Amino acid sequence: MANFDFTKRDSFGSKMGIIAAAAGSAIGLGNIWRFPYIAGENGGGAFLLVYLFFIVVIGVPVMLSEFVIGRSAQRNPLGALKNLAPKTYWFLVGFLGIAAAFFILAFYTTVAGWTLEYLYLAVTNGFQGMGADQMSSMFEQFRTSGMRPLIWQAIFMFFTAFIVYRGIKNGIEKYTKILMPALLLIIIVLCIRAITLPGGGEGLVFLFKPDFSKLTANGVMQALGQSFFSLSIGMGALITYGSYISKKDNLGITAISVTAADLVIAILAGIAIFPAVFAFGIQPEAGPGLVFITLPMIFQQMTGGYFFSLIFFLLLSIAALTSTISLLEVVVAYMSEELNVNRKKSTIIGAVSIAVLGVFCTLSQGPLPGLRIGERNLFDLLDFSSANIMLPLGGLLIVIFAGWFMGVDKVFDELSNGGKLNARYKHAFLFIIRFIAPIGIALVFLNGIGILNFFSGGDL
Ligand code: PHE
Question: How far is the CA of 128 from the centre of ligand 1 (A)?
């Protein structure tokens, strides 16, 4: 088979397109499903504060490092590291990223499938008249039922593959540019309804008033993991997207815009969800079912609830889709550039093999209870370990690579577009990726798994 023709590599068509696609990758179930449930399990306000800190001090630098690596090498994550550091073992970092894409996509499509079920329920008016208890037992029943979630998951994987198959400009970019602004609008409407619910104020206190006595070492680690998961960093999705960014774009501004958009959506999701949690007497530590129970409850209390629930679940599915395509793109870019399998075949092989693992994730929720290690079933295990172990480890290696091994000239060259921009922050950036970010990640991680002990409480 002919080698991949790198002169014909696809790319993003416009600045807006890049931001939409990268923000599309970042904004997803991580913001609306995962952030509230993890924040809820870790006490709310104090978690949010630590999360914010990690986003700014570690998240932005890791994201920018990924863009720098990707655009400089013009390759998939594994190829990029091979290209920038030939004859070394750095390519293994790319390999770790591709493995992470596999694991994340497997459990992520389970949840994405849930959103389709809820979209279906919204269309058929299936939540009507239910109280909080009924809502949570309906969710439990569905989640553990086996067949139905599997079908939705398969449908979702099909849509993902369909878009990735079409490429960057006519697939990923075209869809995300329209869909992301619509999502923002609807979340704002939901927030307004949530904060005006009687008894909802307590939810805002929970989210915004830090109570550090509720925060454990494990919670701090989870805040770091959540920041990586939510920003799509630490596994090469943004190395891959970075490789499609034009040489004329300002990478620093792109990284900050994407981060800001992601953060705004997570906080808005929190504002929409926690008031409802308290107004309807739901436990904030309800776990992965949290949004699927609270949001339908809010919709029921709204004039026009039918309409809003319908567009909300539609948009949530779409937000999930713009993230799943970035995950599948990592695998497809790798296969087509390194293994010389054409894009069409790579997409099919990638999607099908991930779907197989995905089936087990879904079934581990109910029909196959044996698929577990200790407390955690396969789904929880992949959810927990990808965010809290694989991504921080990947991010750690990425900043170390960009800071110490890639070459300062190359890094500065990307930040300043070959000297055309006066990226004045570049020395500060270098300092952060050389010292602050790697040391920070390492400390949080070692503390979280109990090797160091800065403050007590919370085990893995
Ligand atoms: N950031 C995405 C979300 O919040 C998930 C994701 C993680 C996507 C890693 C790509 C890479 O939903």
Answer: 32
